[in-house]
Protein 1
Amino acid sequence: MDAKRILVVEDDESIAELVRDYLEINGFNVKVCRDGVEGLKSVNEEKYDLIILDVMLPGMDGFEILRRIRDEREIPMLIVSAKKEEFDKIRGLRLGADDYITKPFSPGELVARVNAHILKYQRLKSKFSNKEIEVLTIRGLEIQKDARRVMVNGKEINMAQKEFELLVFLAQNPNRVFSKDELFDKIWGLDSLGDAATVTVHIGRIRDKIEAEPSNPQYIETVWGAGYRLRN
């Protein structure tokens, strides 16, 4: 089996080399780019199984790289940053990051998260690669599970991996209220790294994409004190 390819976009040489060493020891094929422009160019020219992004980069910051990549393709992306403020974490997740790790970090934990996200992405692709056609339709919202496509009033909407999984789960269980903890367990798994606040971030991103007025949602409703439901 070919080694999974990882792109590390990190301008701090010591951190970049540390991450490269740990990933290569664990069987990954790693490329390091030292600035944002070079990193984005590499993504557009080569194929990777996962991308690790610093936020504060010369040329183009990690948030902008994240936005540009997520607008065009689906690939696991992890942010590794010294920026610890909640605002930065939420911004990264809203732009489509699959994880946000603050520096200093344990290299072993980083490798574990890389493995976990690649495995989950492979399972998702396998899950929707069968030929059985299943389409969920709720008013103007259409979810094509086999093709992994979301349409709103005939317009295709790009969805990140966890956004799609979360939307599918809610659509398969319409009108039922799920707490944030329940949704986190269902989509991310009991052994996942993170917390239920991630659910709120992803719900916000889904609303931004499928709702005509995200502040007045017609599909995914907040049931105060209880959780969320997708109204049929």
Protein 2
Amino acid sequence: MPRQWIFIANAGAGVRMGAPVPKQYLEVNGRPLLCHTLDTWLAYAGACDAAGIVVGVADGDGWWEKIKKNHPPSIHQSPGGATRMETVWNGLQTLAARADDGDWVLVHDAVRPCVSRGDIVRLAEAVGEGGEGAALACPIADSVRRVGEGGRIIADVERKNLWRVFTPQMFRYAQLRDALARARAEGEVFDDEAGAVQAAGGKPLLVAGAAANIKVTTPDDLALAAAWLARRG
């Protein structure tokens, strides 16, 4: 029976936030963003009897050292990388001795604290026992334009069949490992796992999720996350 492993990418510096600490450690509603994210995943892991949770952590990250003291020892750690893709690759190497090729790995960004447990369950149900993996996403509702020099519109973009892709993204361990190994060998860098799997010939499924599953990048995002989390309770 394939097991589920959870990997939280938590090694980003959050430069665009302009904060004195990495954005995943900024407080929202009295607690660091990362703690809200971990709450959801710990609840999901307990309900589905997940095999384990691994958090990718940058070298010298003292904030994580403080947070992990208040969380179960079953949460393991792997080294961060220079890019998000390298952080995920390192996480897969940490799992190498524990995960089977057919096990599932759910990769999630630490700075997406508003993901709902219901959407994670929906993603897991969508991939089923077979398939080529999947990612949570949301159809684009706004008009889309391509701009050129000076920010001037140069073309309309048809929004039909365009989606914003979120995390978690869920793939077989061997499938994701091999896709990232191919990318590294070719000198390619991908922002997410679905892109790497697609480039390796896969056809990931997109599963509709709530638009509240935002990635906190700017101060405005921080305020929006606080509102969503307060509403969820």
Protein 3
Amino acid sequence: MCAKENAHSGRTGGEEEAPRFIADDQLGKLARWMRILGLDTLYFQEIEDRELIRTAVEEGRILLTRDTRIAAEPGEAKCLFIESDNWTEQLREILSAYHLKVFPEKLFTRCLLCNSPLSPIGKDDVRERVPPFVFRTQEEFVRCPTCDKIYWQGTHVNHVLEKLKPLL
């Protein structure tokens, strides 16, 4: 049976290694917000339960699920059953269960699409890949080395920070 709470502690920054997660197909929005926080979180829209569990075990990831069948028999996977259906409450459940702290410097360090850590890229290298207005108004860019998506600090960042304020 999935744990309601796990004594494992970790941090999203600092000396201790933060736990790594894999979210079931009911937790896509949560996975995206976890990536925004800089938490290593795999998510697949379509994945069979046994493949989800196998990946969690093989990669040493904590399986996050709202599926009572998976929660009842997670096999060898470390598992946390997520009770809430609200993403902010879900984040609170995870932060509390694993004693995680949110560090501003870790925000926006992972690709929202594929979870890879982002790398800085020079402004001249994105000239043809971003809208002209963005190129003129932004100085710093990051790139996902896996899916090649380019990110910059647009106005959406302030909206995200407002939503995260209670957690920071």
